Amino acid sequence: MPRMVEVAVVAFHRPCARTGRIRAGGPGAVPLAGPPRATAGAAMATKGAIVDTGYSYPLLSVFWTLLWFFLFALWFYLLFAVVSDILLSHDLSGWGKAGWIVVAVVFPLFGILIYLIVRGGSMHERAMERAAQQEQALRERVLRNHFPPGGGPADEIGRLAELRDHGAISDEEYQRLKAKVLT
């Protein structure tokens, strides 16, 4: 059993083929078997050894990665906006919608750009029309739910007066129902 630990430690401390430096901290590094040494980092810092982490990622690469990430996110936003505009357009036929979807899928970047050039100016107008229709539907729903048609005390008193005038209810019933409506 001790032989396997020695082989693992030797393999763990093998020098890097590219630089020739010892990877993972050199002789003070934690072996694969056994408890970690508390002074490994301090011993390396005092010896002045160079620790090769095995990768290099400069700051400019970080900025380029962030730029590409945000461009990718922007492209997805445009893709969803364009596809939703295509599917919600009432002025396009089914074949027109299918054609634009195929263009957007087959030519991902250029398809989106072509759609924005050809139909991008009216995207805002269609979005405003949809928003106005949704707002109107919401207003009608709120009015219908909070102010029922034919509801309200004045309408009920008017119906009671009609019933009294036609002789369906007596004057006493009319007064009693009127007081009930007003309370």
Automatic annotation (TrEMBL):
Domain (SHOCT) ranges: 155-182
GO cellular component: plasma membrane
Annotated Pfam families: PLDc_N, SHOCT
Key words, A-Z: Cell membrane, Membrane, Transmembrane, Transmembrane helix
Cardiolipin synthase N-terminal domain ranges (all copies): 74-119
Subcellular location: Cell membrane
Domain of life: Bacteria
Major localization listed first in the record, in broad terms: membrane
Residue ranges of the TM segments: 57-78, 98-118
Entry membrane topology: Multi-pass membrane protein
Name by which UniProt lists this protein: Integral membrane protein
